[in-house]
Amino acid sequence: MHIVVCLKQVPDSAQIRVHPVTNTIMRQGVPTIINPYDLFALEEALRLRDRLGGEVTVLTMGPPMAEDALRKALTFGADRAVLLTDRSFAGSDTLATSYALSMALAKIGEVFGPTPIVFTGKQTIDGDTAQVGPGIAKRLGLNQLTYVARICDLDPAAGTISVERRAEGGVQVLETRMPVLITMLEGTNEMRRGSLDDAYRAARSQIVKWSAADAGITELAKCGLKGSPTIVKKVFAPQARAEKVQQIPTSDLSTDALAASVMAAIFQKQPALEGDLLRFAAGQ
Amino acid sequence: MTDAPKADAPKPAAGRAGTKRELPEHFKAYRHVWVVIECEHGIVHPVSLELLGEGRKLADKRGVELAGVVLAGDPLTAAQVAAAAFEHGADLAYVVTDPILAHYRNESYTRAMTDLVNTYKPEILLLGATNLGRDLAGSVATTLLTGLTADCTELAIDDEGSLAATRPTFGGSLLCTIMTLNYRPQMATVRPRVMSLPERTPGRWGRIVEHPLNLTEADIITKVLRFVADRESDKAQLAYADIVVAGGLGLRSAENFQLVRSLAEVLGAEYGGSRPLVQKGWISADRQIGQTGKTIRPKLYIAAGISGAIQHRVGVEGADTIVAINTDPKAPIFEFAHLGVVADAIELLPALTRAFRAHLSVNRLAG
Ligand SMILES: Cc1cc2nc3c(=O)[nH]c(=O)nc-3n(C[C@H](O)[C@H](O)[C@H](O)COP(=O)(O)OP(=O)(O)OC[C@H]3O[C@@H](n4cnc5c(N)ncnc54)[C@H](O)[C@@H]3O)c2cc1C
Ligand SMILES: Nc1ncnc2c1ncn2[C@@H]1O[C@H](COP(=O)(O)O)[C@@H](O)[C@H]1O
Predict the structure, then answer these.
(1) Parallel, antiparallel, or unpaired for β B33-37 and B124-128?
(2) Does domain A2-222 match CATH 3.40.640.10?
(3) Quick one: angle between helices A36-52 and A67-76, nearest 10?
(4) What is the ipTM of this complex?
(5) Where are the domains of chain A?
(6) Ligand nearest to the CA of B1
(7) B247 C-alpha vs ligand 1 centroid, how far in Å?
(8) pLDDT (tens digit, 9 = 90+) per residue, A148-207?
(9) Atom of ligand 1 at shortest distance to CA of B276?
């Protein structure tokens, strides 16, 4: 079975700093990583391949340096990597991103064989919308399975798949037909350590690089800024809170005396709370 | 939604496709504000009511009507859900009732939604950023080829009457305001608890517009085999708790996290923690508070041994009173806490538990 995993290279936002004066992101020296949520999708794809045979292709749309993320995915054991890169993709919102990725996915199907399963992560940590997966599914007419916690059953011959999906207030067990798009929930598996063989292969692999034209994209008006119905009107820093913190003096107090003054300060801020708590305590 | 806005060089908007100010002619018929009322298994999700509160303000500013969209499996559920929408501010409800809609499925819900939008043409369409809302919003926006801004924290109408949707970006370090100028409807999702619940007006009623679902079960490929409801007892109710006690890495060990649970128990509170605690397995993922966890809006939030990173901050800022316990007087949490205590949480938490327990039992005896 041929499985494609869409993954994105993102700045390691734990290390992002905002310039205090200009309110701009200081990107210099910020390392990039594979979007952490996408690793759950990749691992699930690798497990399916190990069980059922076939290949895993990883796909990303991004600048040329996104190649690093793809190479990393190869070290985990992916078989093939496709980098979709073109200046016309700059400034894509989710609608434009899902358009470009869906065109590339169709092309991957033509060139490397049909793909009954496409995986994406739940969401990215920079775009953070969780909308690109559903967007791809809709454009390609794939049956959509989001927030999948577990793949229960997969019958390649019958073309059916059933999964546990995290829904509101419970778990849905869904059955559908392939081709499907699955967005994988976080924490559902643990990324393997790639083998030395994989690392060796990854270092030597050719990464397939496609421009918009290579991916069969002729309608550039659907790409990048032009193809994005949303525009960023302004970017600004969150406002600092006007009210200053009230520090509770701690000097010379025993811990119990300090606790008493913390409790008193809480009740002073929230006079109604004491009554709520007493009613709660009475109900116990 | 604009993906990773190029914040290091926020380019002037000129020259973009999205900036032509004149709305295309065929979009001019799009009017009114809609909120999708999410009701899996007959229970209205509170986020939908929060959105009605927000939608009411937008509709009033625009001088248009506010509608709730109700997709339900049976007429009784539909009526109850519509009633909730009216009581929380909707003027009318678009109702699609069909057994096919009893369980959420992407295909049937997307079809119902896109049919409604194409027939009745709203200018603004709001959904909760829940698993259901995010699953549905992406499909609807792609089908309609319109703009969608995810996980907004503020919604407003700009001078020209367009929806200005503000959301955190780069993990909350910055905010950005996003517009959908040339397409309709303008779509946005908002996470639970980001907006406050509007006042309920019992008995308030409105117009109902029924619309058929032009689908049969045979048309739908995906089947729901089972639904396993969460057991109430296992489920963290963080988002809607009145009091939340949380711990961070400052607690140093999983054993010490018990101190948080004990205080929570005395206060009848929910407990949670910062993300590293989930990664270490000290608490379950549904107890993570912050940008990639739960947004909370309690009356009282006690944070012990939490530094107050921006990703944590964005999830707790709606709390009425934030109490921070941290050994480091320079910890960022003191920039947004209301009450600060520079102290060792491992000592103070048990003392607080004792103090509250004693206070509550003495006063109960007295009262
Ligand atoms: C994409 C992304 C998403 C994220 N999402 C979230 C999220 O949703 N929620 C979240 O919480 N984090 C999130 N984070 C992580 C966040 O950036 C911080 O790393 C995290 O919140 C820090 O957790 P902490 O405060 O427990 O630990 P630390 O930052 O290590 O802080 C520990 C604090 O405890 C204090 N301390 C030490 N000993 C004691 C003591 N004895 N008593 C009292 N205080 C003590 C220290 O002074 C320090 O301030 C995210 C990060 C990324 C990159
Ligand atoms: N530029 C991209 N290249 C490849 N995959 C992407 C890209 N952007 C988003 N995705 C996929 O879509 C998922 C959801 O992204 P988002 O809508 O940005 O939260 C991610 O987890 C990725 O799997």
Answers:
(1) parallel
(2) no
(3) 40
(4) 0.89
(5) 2-222, 242-284
(6) 2
(7) 9
(8) 999 999 999 999 999 999 998 889 999 999 999 999 998 889 999 989 999 999 999 999
(9) 23
